[in-house]
């Protein structure tokens, strides 16, 4: 969306899913000059410690490369897990996708409002 | 089998200060405003039933020492932290089970918070009392001798009147002590640490502190799931949040409540006991950690429920 890549995750981010998710996410953020990535977690049911670690790895690479990463639209269960694990201090969390886009790019928010 | 906690704090003893006591008193008095208590029992009932733990009590401030009472005439405990002083006094005051008392200590590692109680362990000074120190590090004796030496302490190790002997264990090789089978496992911690699993008559207690769990190492995870398998109680290092353990405190050798619950769920553990509390956490913060861990257990549960306790100095768990 404009200059922000949106990655929509679905289901459980646990031991089984984390390797593929991390590979995909790191591939997006670990680029020359850095990238802006918004993670839409609206359909993520659960995140385990291993899943949270993938976000930490991606956030670290993103920061090192000058990029930005944010998570949006956490379900109530996943929001609680973020709070209990204190991962809300590791990676910026936004109530919805538009807010996460706006935090990184006004153009992306405009594109979102225009329907893509 | 009975587990008694004599010290539950990590890194450094953290005594309750005057301001914290005053805050508890203030909260209790305000809560009791207008009430009348005729007897000690009335007052105790009010404390137990109407005050939360952080107001009516304290998690305590002694560093690690946990007794495993399996009904033997020999004492067994884990670690020689500052809680050992109170345990030693208790053991000396208790009617003797035998003429030549025996104390078995299992040492996780020799960082200061885990050995600092030894110079204050009265039985070590008394002729006829025998302390057997079990552990997987070959240099435990050297560490204990060093903290007794001048200028750190006025009584040299060689002046101890009791008998002190060492049983250097091989990790993974079980030993028989006081009627229990004791297994050991190496743990990720600066200078290495070791966890211990105590088994007797179908009951199992695991003591696993100062142990960081590397989430990118599935073999490591599986080894701990097996070590914890079916335990009645797992005493687990939950010093940091998961976020801290994976970021600013990575490789500091400690773990989190999130990983504790996940490992215990996978291993079919009955009770998880949060342990090695951060000395920077006050009673309110540890109570919050406990509440949040209970909630995470509910959120992550896929089969049998896991009971979650937060250890405090003086707590007893009967199996």
Can you tell me about this structure?
- The complex is a heterodimer of chains A (116) and B (319).
- Chain A contains 5 helices and 4 strands; from the N terminus they run βαβαβαβαα.
- With 116 residues, chain A is of the alpha/beta class.
- Chain A has one domain: Transcription Regulator spoIIAA, CATH 3.30.750.24.
- Chain A has a 4-stranded parallel β-sheet.
- In chain A, strand 3, helix 3 and strand 4 form a beta-alpha-beta unit.
- Chain A is globular, with a radius of gyration of 13 Å.
- Chain A starts with a strand and ends with a helix.
- The model of chain A has no long low-confidence stretch (mean pLDDT 91).
- Chain B has 319 residues and is α/β, with parallel strands linked by helices.
- Chain B folds into 2 domains: 2-14 and 60-318, 4-Layer Sandwich (Metallo-beta-lactamase, Chain A); 18-30 and 39-56, no CATH class.
- Chain B has 10 helices and 14 strands.
- Chain B has a 7-stranded mixed β-sheet with strand order 6-5-4-3-2-1-14. In chain B, strands 7-8-9-10-11-12-13 form a 7-stranded mixed β-sheet, with helices on one face.
- Chain B starts with a strand and ends with a strand.
- Chain A binds chain B through residues 15, 46, 48-50, 52-53, 56, 77, 80-81, 83-87, 89-90, and chain B through 215-216, 218, 241-244, 246-247, 256-259, 262, 292-293, 295-296, 299-300.
List keywords for this structure.
heterodimer, A: Transcription Regulator spoIIAA, 4-stranded parallel β-sheet, 4 strands, B: alpha/beta, Metallo-beta-lactamase, Chain A, 2 domains, 7-stranded mixed β-sheet, 10 helices, globular
């Amino acid at each position: 969306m404009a200059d922000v890549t949106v990655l929509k995750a679905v289901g459980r981010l646990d031991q089984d899913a984390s390797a593929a998710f991390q590979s995909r996410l790191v591939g997006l953020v670990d680029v020359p000059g850095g990238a802006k990535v918004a993670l839409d977690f609206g359909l993520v049911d659960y995140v385990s410690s291993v899943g949270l670690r993938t976000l930490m790895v991606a956030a670290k690479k993103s920061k090192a490369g000058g990029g930005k990463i944010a998570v949006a639209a956490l379900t109530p269960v996943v929001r609680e897990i973020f709070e209990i694990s204190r991962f809300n201090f590791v990676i910026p969390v936004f109530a919805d996708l538009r807010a996460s886009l706006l935090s990184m790019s006004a153009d992306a928010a405009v594109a979102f409002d225009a329907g893509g | 089998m009975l587990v008694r906690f004599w010290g539950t704090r990590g890194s450094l003893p953290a005594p309750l200060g005057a301001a914290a006591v005053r805050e508890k008193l203030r909260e209790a008095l305000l809560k009791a405003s207008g009430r009348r208590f005729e007897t000690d029992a009335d007052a105790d009932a009010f404390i137990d039933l109407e005050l939360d733990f952080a107001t009516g009590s304290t998690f305590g401030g002694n560093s690690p020492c946990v007794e495993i009472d399996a009904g033997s005439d020999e004492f067994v405990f884990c670690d020689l932290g500052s809680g050992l002083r109170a345990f030693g006094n208790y053991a000396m005051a208790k009617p003797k089970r035998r003429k030549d008392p025996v104390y078995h200590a299992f040492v996780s590692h020799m960082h200061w918070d885990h050995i600092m109680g030894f110079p204050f362990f009265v039985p070590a000074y008394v002729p006829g009392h025998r302390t057997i120190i079990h552990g997987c590090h070959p240099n435990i004796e050297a560490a204990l001798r060093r903290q007794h030496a001048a200028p750190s302490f006025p009584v040299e190790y060689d002046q101890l009147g009791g008998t002190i002997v060492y049983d250097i264990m091989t990790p993974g090789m079980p030993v028989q002590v006081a009627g229990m089978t004791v297994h050991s496992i190496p743990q990720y911690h600066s200078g290495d640490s070791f966890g211990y699993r105590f088994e007797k008559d179908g009951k199992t207690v695991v003591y696993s502190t100062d142990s960081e769990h590397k989430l990118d190492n599935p073999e490591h995870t599986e080894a701990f799931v097996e070590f914890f398998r079916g335990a009645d109680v797992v005493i687990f290092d939950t010093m940091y949040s998961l976020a801290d353990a994976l970021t600013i405190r990575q490789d500091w050798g400690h773990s989190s409540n999130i990983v504790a619950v996940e490992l215990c769920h996978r291993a079919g553990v009955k009770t998880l006991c949060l342990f090695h509390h951060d000395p920077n956490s006050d009673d309110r913060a540890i109570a919050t950690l406990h509440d949040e861990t209970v909630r995470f257990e509910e959120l992550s549960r896929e089969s049998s429920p896991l009971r979650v306790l937060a250890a405090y100095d003086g707590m007893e768990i009967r199996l």
